[in-house]
Specification:
about 40% helix; four-stranded antiparallel β-sheet; about 400 residues; 13 strands; alpha+beta; 11 helices
Length: about 400
């Protein structure tokens, strides 16, 4: 699927903006990426490491200040909804507000931090992240909104602050108990590099992803995550309970503080077999992520791929967040010559897989995995060959 260039997307959104909101001075265009996590899944709320990168697909925005306090929103992805109106005096979550709860939540979070937004705006979005894919379209919208607010009103916030404000708004305005990874990867993205982030203290380093003769391919299951959110909160509380049980026998702050040997030593403190499996995933996945980054630094892409495969097996059997769609995509990927590694990415229960595939095998990968998936699941998957891109920007 050929991506439109940023210049083409900018032209398209500015033309549509003028058509929907009318011509006027001061309209600017922006972009914030989506993200994919290469390894380190469900570790971000367990005090572990994650290894995401920003993508060159994401959310395009066009915005213009208004003279009043009105907010007018329009999404080219949901054009049938038309203009959705609100105001700076109505920043509370409402089901009827739909997708506009994300930008409104960020405005609310800025005001909570003492940044007064002096006037309303007209805001148009156009995302080229597949909807419901688990590539963080909501976090992309949050970071984009924060970036626009900073650019418009000169607020003194760093990109890292934009990530924290986005997460705060998602947790407290939209009621999704997410960790920091998505917003952080998007706000802090750097071309050609993934971010090795310790979610316990937000220390991070950039690590170049050098894939000689290979590319990252995202396979979108096209199964919408409905069940995911309740299961996500359930997994989170299972891990919190397991942590509390282990803390009775050893002084740790998070499951991420343990290595494999320590976990095996203390796991008998966990009083339930299911919680043992959940905690084991959190500990082992964190250690896998540390090893995977080390492997990349040593240019050992094969080992990185092997760790990706192990990550998926752990998510399937210990954390139980995959489901038949993601398992089919991964298991079929493993059969294709030229696949270095493949795993589910994101919260699970639908969404996407991420694979590292040798460049000359990409066509056969898409063909074979696509055919097997459609035969088994009954509908098609979509495939995206992606590049690692920068964080948010003015176009």
């Amino acid at each position: 699927m050929a991506e439109k260039t940023a210049a083409e997307m900018k032209e398209k959104i500015l033309a549509k903006f003028a058509e929907v909101f009318g011509e006027g001075e001061g309209t600017k265009a922006y972009f914030a990426p989506g993200r994919v996590n290469m390894i380190g899944e469900h570790t971000d709320y367990n005090g572990g490491h994650v290894f995401p990168c920003a993508l060159t697909i994401g959310t395009y925005g066009a915005a213009r200040k208004r003279e009043d306090r009105k907010l007018r929103f329009y999404s080219m992805n949901f054009g049938h909804l038309g203009i959705i109106e609100s105001s700076l005096d109505e920043l509370e979550p409402a089901k009827k507000s739909g997708w506009t709860n994300y930008p409104k939540g960020v405005m609310w979070a800025f005001e909570k931090r003492g940044f007064e937004i002096p006037c309303g705006m007209d805001l148009m979005l156009n995302g080229n992240i597949p909807n419901g894919s688990g590539l963080s379209s909501s976090a992309s919208v949050e970071v984009l909104t924060g970036f626009i607010l900073r650019d418009f009103f000169g607020f003194d916030v760093t990109n890292q602050d934009l990530a924290l404000i986005g997460q705060y708004s998602e947790n407290n305005f939209n009621g999704v108990n997410c960790g920091i990874m998505d917003q952080f990867a998007i706000a802090m993205g750097k071309e050609g590099q993934a971010i090795f982030l310790d979610t316990a203290d937000l220390s991070f380093e950039y690590a170049p992803i050098k894939l000689e003769n290979a590319k990252i391919v995202i396979s979108c299951s096209n199964k919408k995550r409905g069940l995911g959110d309740s299961k996500y909160n359930e997994r989170r509380s299972e891990c919190e309970t397991a942590l509390a049980e282990i803390q009775k026998v050893v002084g740790i702050n998070s499951l991420g503080d343990l290595n494999e040997e320590q976990f095996e030593m203390y796991k008998s403190a966990i009083k339930d077999e299911v919680r043992v499996k959940r905690a084991k995933h959190a500990v082992y996945e964190n250690q896998r992520t540390v090893k995977a980054v080390e492997a990349l630094k040593n240019n050992d892409v094969e080992l990185f791929g092997k760790l990706m495969n192990e990550s998926h097996i752990s998510l399937q059997y210990d954390y139980e967040v995959t489901g038949i769609e993601l398992d089919t995509l991964v298991e079929e990927a493993w059969k294709v010559d030229g696949v270095i590694g493949s795993r589910m990415t994101g919260a699970g229960f639908g969404g996407c897989t991420v694979s590292i595939v040798k460049t000359d095998a990409i066509d056969s990968f898409i063909d074979k995995v696509g055919k097997a998936y459609k035969d088994k699941i009954g509908y098609a998957a979509d495939f995206y060959v992606v590049e690692i891109g920068d964080g948010p920007t003015v176009l």
